[in-house]
Specification:
Distance between the termini: 36 Å
Order of helices and strands: EEEEEEEEEEEEH
Number of strands: 12
CATH topology: Jelly Rolls
CATH class: Mainly Beta
Mean pLDDT: 92
Number of domains: 1
Low-confidence stretches: none
Strand order of the largest sheet: 1-9-6-11-4
CATH architecture: Sandwich
């Protein structure tokens, strides 16, 4: 699926441990990183996300633990498990996402292409589908 890519990150390691390096504007992080944040202490039965971004791109890594990512581009859906720090999900704009089934030790690190902007969020799934499919609000019948 082109709207979401699962990326295997290069791990460098020896007897001392392992290291993963992320560089912006590279094959792994194909954008300027404007924001980094962590999601942690999420209860197993909680569903996070439930939104799309109009333009924002993200690279998401489970630096600890695991969770499932439901992604939807308005036409296709996919469930992706992220369960190791060497596996990343690259999510482009206009992709609905939900995160669920968090392990107790799950820590998600998110690299974002833009600063936080409430105007970039779409919280209503029907609005998201209309946006993706190019259906103007004025064409919808009120009833």
């Amino acid at each position: 699926m082109k709207f979401v890519e699962v990326i295997d990150l290069n791990v460098f390691g020896d007897h001392r441990g392992s290291l993963i390096s992320l560089e912006e504007n590279s094959a792994v992080v194909p954008f300027d990183v404007k924001r980094v944040y962590y999601i942690f202490d999420t209860k197993e039965d909680v569903v996070r996300g439930k939104h799309a971004h109009k333009k924002l791109e993200q690279l998401v890594i489970a630096v600890s633990g695991e969770c499932n990512f439901y992604v939807d581009n308005g036409f296709e859906q996919q469930m992706i498990k992220i369960d190791r720090p060497s596996k990343a999900i690259y999510i482009k704009g206009l992709v609905w996402r939900e995160m669920m089934d968090f392990s107790d030790d799950c820590v998600l690190m998110v690299l974002a292409s833009e600063h936080y902007d409430t105007a970039d969020y779409i919280y209503d799934y029907d609005e998201f589908v209309r946006e993706v499919r190019g259906i103007p609000l004025s064409s919808l019948k009120k009833g």
